Structures are given as structure tokens and as C-alpha cells.
Amino acid sequence: MTDSTGSRAVYVYASLTREWEDFTDAHQNAREKAEEAIDQYANLLKGQASEAPPLIIAGGLGSGKTQLLYHLFKYSWREKKVPALYVNLRSLINMIKRRMTVERRTERLTPTELVYKFSELALNKLDLLKNHFNDNTLTLSDLWLPEVAGRPANLPPSELFKEVGINPNEAYALIDETLKRKRGIILLIDEVEMAYKELRVLIEGGFRDLTDIIGSGVIGIYTV
User: Fold this and answer.
1) 76-115 as b/e: b if 16+ CB within 10 A
2) How far is residue 92 from each of residues 27, 99, 114, 202, measured CA to CA in Å?
3) For burial by CB atoms within 10 Å, which of 110, 124, 164, 214 has the most?
């Protein structure tokens, strides 16, 4: 990426503990649009909006996609009070495939069925997060949480939230509230380009149908 003057390249590794910076107008525009989409979903949960716009973050290698997802993770928990989980697409697809094997499902999923799978898995992870909030039994990736560079992979979730300025008590209360209503999770999906073809094989129909279903909010999960 280039800096705000456009005169030099700036290479920054994604870090959960680093706050987002608008290096260029394009980065500012991407952040603002992403935050607006999260805002809209938060309003939908409050009954103040009828839908949330689909949000797809696109860009080349090193363009800041992962860093923006990290920003949205913190923005969702801190500013909007909506639980967010983080997972890469291949891990998500593999979990869905395992469930389909158990169910002896061989045909492809409809977009609606896929979003229900997303929601079911996310609620299960949120329940797991609640039960292991203060211990290091599981890794952060097991719980669909981003890892912190230089810290143990099995860092207790409560410590992770402290590291990034999220009040652990508030986070726990949000988790409990969301599990009771069984809706209202933001699922941040990274490395989409690495498993895009696998996703195409998994579902029938177009991606427009998928994004429309997610944006409607009727299934209780919003994916980025």
C-alpha cells in the first residue's frame, strides 16, 4: 500500500493490537463503508432498520484486508456492542463439510441452508466461548477469535479482550445476552480468496442470493 501522499510504499503486518490507520483515501473509504455496514446491522438488531447492506472486503495481497477485519472485530465489540467472531473461510467450509458428512448430506446447500449453517456454528462457538471465557483450555482459533502476536495461542479470551481494550465483563454479558436471543452475531471471514472455489462447489445458486439473505437479518447472523 502507499501512504497518504502516494509517494512511498508502506508495508504493515496485520496486528490485532494495532489500531487501524487511514493510510490513503481508499483506506479511509473502505473503513467508513465497513463501519456503516456494521452500524446498519446493529440498528437492524434494535429494530431501527429493515436490512443491512452486504459487505465484501476486496483487495490485493497486503492491501489491509485482515487489518480491517481486526478493526471491525474491535469496533463491533467496543462501539456497537455486538459480538464478533473471526475465522478463515477454509476452516469454516471444513466444519460445514464434516457436519454434512454426519448428516449424510451429499447434495449442495442452498444459500439459505448455508447461512443457517453459519449461524448454527457461530452460536456453538459463542457458547464455547462463554464456557471457556477465563481459561486456556482451547486456542483462540478454536473459539473463532483472532490471535495476538507474541502471546500464547491458548490465551484466555478474557485476557484477549483486555489486550484490545474491550471490557471483559461487558463482553461476557454480550455473549450471554446473544445466546439467550439466539441471534445477532457478526462473523468476520478472512482468506476468502484461498477457498473461494471450494465455496462455489459447496452451494447452489448465486452469491447474490447469499448476500441478500445475510443482509435481510432474518437468520440472525451478519457475515463480512
Assistant:
1) bbeebebbbbbbbbbebbebbeeebeeeeeeeebebebbb
2) 27, 11, 11, 12
3) 214
Grid cell, residue 119, equals 449461524
Give the model confidence (pLDDT) of 164-206 as tens digits: 999 999 999 999 999 999 999 999 998 887 888 888 888 887 6
Cell numbers that stand for 89 in this block: 473461510
Q: Which helix (H) or strand (E) holds 222?
A: strand 221-223
DSSP string, 151-219: S-TT--HHHHHHHTT--HHHHHHHHHHHHHHT--EEEEEE-HHHHHHHHHHHB-S-HHHHHHHHHH-TT
- Residues in Cβ contact with 157 at an 8 Å cutoff, skipping those fewer than 6 apart: 129, 132, 133, 134, 140, 143, 145, 171
> Grid coordinates representing 121?
456454528
